[in-house]
Amino acid sequence: MRQLGRWFATRGEHANAVRFGILLLGMAGTDDDSEILTTLGTFWAFSTEACEALLSSQADPCRALFELARQAEGWARVDAVRRLGGASDPGIRDWLIRESCTGDVLDSYFALTAAKVGGLADALSRESLDEETLDGAGRLLEALTDVDGPGPELASYDDAVCALKGYLRHATARGITLRRLWSLLSINRFLNDSRASAICREHHEWQRVRHRFTELIAGPASRDVVISGLADDEPNTLRLAAWAARLMNVPARPALLRRAESQPYDSTIWFLLIDGCPSKDISTVVEAAERLLPLQGLRTGPTTELGLGTKYEVDGILDIIVSRLDEHPGHGWPLIEAALNNRTSRNRRMALRALRGWPADFLPPGARQILLAAAAREPVPELRSEMTQEAGRL
């Protein structure tokens, strides 16, 4: 059975054949098969079966799963870490705090397991912590409080208040860095979110912790860190500072516009500039986009392509901007016109949505004829019909 399992796992030409081999190795495999199972387990298509096989076939399954977790990414990493519930090895527990969370959006799927098994509260109750452990604990707390993820689980962690107090104490003592400030902001967002557990809103200890987080974030030290980050030329530092500025109501648009001037194809910068842009600033942002983006080059003519992949990078920036122009009638007509003539169906659809959001008196002369011409060229039947209907309204 083991021989057959190895053959299918290493020679199978179809996914189910490989899974069949992994299943047999889970039943009859030995420690000598750990490399095969770990290699296959790094692929999401086989990670669930490989993790179960490691659990049932290895003399030290936690060590085998740990090795897989260190190599894997995405859902494969989630599958491995979630099965480390029985780990007692100090090295594994330390890794769960320091390195298990990488900032990936999937971290929140295993964060509760990592916090419990790794002993997050115990680690943060120590008298002193090294930088790596403190920052790893911050990423873990972010994952536990991710209100945009599958569901924040901090309220399900029995030692949550102790962990939060410990993180506050160490972060304050070490000094607030931009990375730690982002962790503080994420936790504070959870503590003040209406969807958070009732215990976070009503329990006295939770209220005290929430007050301390809010107070620290509102302090001058936190603001200074953001302002310094906005002035930094390093792209990732600027982006992180800009995200933090959004949550702290610190003006970031001047710094972002300067970045757009030097790096006009940075899509994150354009998102931060346009998303939620107030009416008083929209003309400045739109003018910069019209000047810095190659609008003539984006008027490629329609195709049925959605616009996925790196070759559509600049088209994607146009999408980011035009998809929000329905909120700003009268601003960005050249961008909308370019989108109507763009190769991606997504951009043409966003241009149509923007037009639907504009009252007719905000449109330039000839807008109806331009839309009818776009409809005549449109290769997507549904979109062509919608364009024709909108032209009739105009």
SSE diagram, text form:
Blueprint: H1 2-11, H2 15-28, H3 34-41, H4 44-57, H5 61-71, H6 74-81, H7 90-98, H8 111-118, H9 120-124, H10 131-144, H11 160-174, H12 178-191, H13 198-202, H14 204-218, H15 220-230, H16 235-248, H17 253-262, H18 267-274, H19 279-292, H20 295-298, H21 313-322, H22 333-340, H23 345-357, H24 367-377, H25 381-393
Please summarize what this structure is:
With 394 residues, the protein is an all-alpha fold. It has 25 helices and no strands. The mean pLDDT is 93.
How helix-rich are the residues, as a percent range?
Answer: 55-70%
Q: Which geometry do the CA atoms define?
A: flat
What is the number of helical segments per DSSP (H or I, 4+ residues)?
25
Strand content: under 5%
Beta-strand segment tally: 0
The low-confidence parts are none
Distance between the termini: 72 Å
> For the CA atoms, what is the radius of gyration?
26 Å
**Largest β sheet strand count, sense and barrel closure:** none
Protein structure class = mainly alpha
SSE string, helix = H, strand = E? Answer: HHHHHHHHHHHHHHHHHHHHHHHHH
Q: pLDDT average, as an integer?
A: 93
